[in-house]
Amino acid sequence: MICVMGAGAFGTALAISLAHNGEVSLWARDARHAQEMDQHRENRKRLPGIMLPDRISIHSDPSSLPEDSTILLSIPTQKLRAALTEHAKTLSRATLVACCKGIELSTGKGPVQIINEILPNAKTAILTGPSFADDIARDLPTALTLACEDEAVGKTLQNNLTTPNLRLYRTTDVTGAELGGALKNVIAIGCGTVIGAGLGESARAALMTRGFAEMSRMAVSLGANVETLAGLSGFGDLVLTCGSDQSRNFRYGRSIGRDETFDSAVTVEGAATAKAVRDIAHEKSLEMPITEVIAALIDQELRVDQAMDMLLSRPLKEE
Ligand SMILES: NC(=O)C1=CN([C@@H]2O[C@H](COP(=O)(O)OP(=O)(O)OC[C@H]3O[C@@H](n4cnc5c(N)ncnc54)[C@H](O)[C@@H]3O)[C@@H](O)[C@H]2O)C=CC1
Ligand SMILES: O=C(CO)COP(=O)(O)O
């Protein structure tokens, strides 16, 4: 049985795609939201205009899940620990696939590390890469990375979670996949800022490229393979998120560049992750100048012109 926990935009989109393969359970924490979705066969709150196939059953009580389920956790990273702790008994024997992109601010851990800490006996993996929920839900072609340390479990998940429109590539480099998905959101905030402030497409390309160098430097220093960063979960998602105003991280950055306010209820994973990355960089003495200025912009410690001056006046060096 495949179950998606978290009826946000991404969880709902994954459930829609997986329904091509068979029955799927979609679990929403809010009973009223679950009831509304069931009544209208639509997630009007997070994915309006897209019908939920009959093969999706909607629940708000996770204790009804079979113990050996595969559960896709589509919950923002900063909320994941609370959700796992609350439902630890139900989840302890399942195969848990993190479907979130971030680093926990209070611990510096990625989603799989958080799951392994709370549920040490669960089989774990992460599903990440370039995909907007809306594209997946509309059955547009998408390719993602499925990272699982246990190769046999990874192969089973790859087969079970690939759908006619959602093609999964496999790796055992969980650290690389986790970090690619988390770090690209920080750079996307920076690219949004550049565009919002009217600094131009050339500046965006420079920030993406030097940001990718920064992402790779940190990920490799934490044990990732550099090839993983060059794949779907790193470079692929960086390109998508930095180049599209469908991205919430990009739009949040754009609001910083335009000096506008942004709706604090919208999920922007890169905002907390930027600060978590800055903390890790300080602890490990890693040079992360782009992340430093993005975290400072988020904290309103710098203006955009000051941030640009800081980056442009750095000592000249080899690429
Ligand atoms: N929306 C997108 O296009 C994509 C999102 N993602 C990732 O998916 C993750 C979720 O994002 P979205 O679904 O877009 O966010 P969203 O804001 O649409 O939904 C988040 C969902 O998490 C639920 N939630 C929050 N705290 C919870 C808790 N303690 N227990 C249970 N559920 C809880 C909320 O009720 C909400 O339904 C993020 O890490 C995001 O980076 C990944 C790829 C694409
Ligand atoms: O992760 C995503 C695309 O792969 C979604 O991006 P946002 O969270 O910025 O909307």
UniProtKB/TrEMBL annotation:
InterPro entries, A to Z: 6-PGluconate_DH-like_C_sf (IPR008927), 6PGD_dom2 (IPR013328), G3P_DH_NAD-dep (IPR006168), G3P_DH_NAD-dep_C (IPR006109), G3P_DH_NAD-dep_N (IPR011128), NAD(P)-bd_dom_sf (IPR036291)
Entry-linked Gene3D superfamilies: N-(1-d-carboxylethyl)-l-norvaline Dehydrogenase, domain 2, NAD(P)-binding Rossmann-like Domain
Localization in the cell: Cytoplasm
Functional description taken from the UniProt entry: Catalyzes the reduction of the glycolytic intermediate dihydroxyacetone phosphate (DHAP) to sn-glycerol 3-phosphate (G3P), the key precursor for phospholipid synthesis.
Catalytic-site annotation from UniProt: K184 (proton acceptor)
Residues covered by the Glycerol-3-phosphate dehydrogenase NAD-dependent N-terminal domain: 2-152
Binding site for NAD(+): G6, A7, G8, A9, F10, G11, A133, R248
One family name in Pfam for this protein: NAD_Gly3P_dh_C
Enzyme Commission number(s): 1.1.1.94
Catalytic activity: sn-glycerol 3-phosphate + NADP(+) = dihydroxyacetone phosphate + NADPH + H(+); sn-glycerol 3-phosphate + NAD(+) = dihydroxyacetone phosphate + NADH + H(+)
Pathway this chain belongs to: Membrane lipid metabolism; glycerophospholipid metabolism
Species: Roseovarius albus
Binding site for substrate: K101, R248, N249
Top-rank EC class of the record's enzyme: oxidoreductase
A single GO molecular function term of this UniProt record: glycerol-3-phosphate dehydrogenase (NAD+) activity
Primary subcellular site in the record, as a coarse category: cytoplasm
Family (UniProt): Belongs to the NAD-dependent glycerol-3-phosphate dehydrogenase family.
Binding site for sn-glycerol 3-phosphate: K101, G129, S131, K184, D237, S247, R248, N249
Record-annotated Glycerol-3-phosphate dehydrogenase NAD-dependent C-terminal domain positions: 173-308
Biological process according to GO: carbohydrate metabolic process; glycerol-3-phosphate biosynthetic process; glycerol-3-phosphate catabolic process; glycerophospholipid metabolic process; phospholipid biosynthetic process
Name of this protein: Glycerol-3-phosphate dehydrogenase [NAD(P)+]
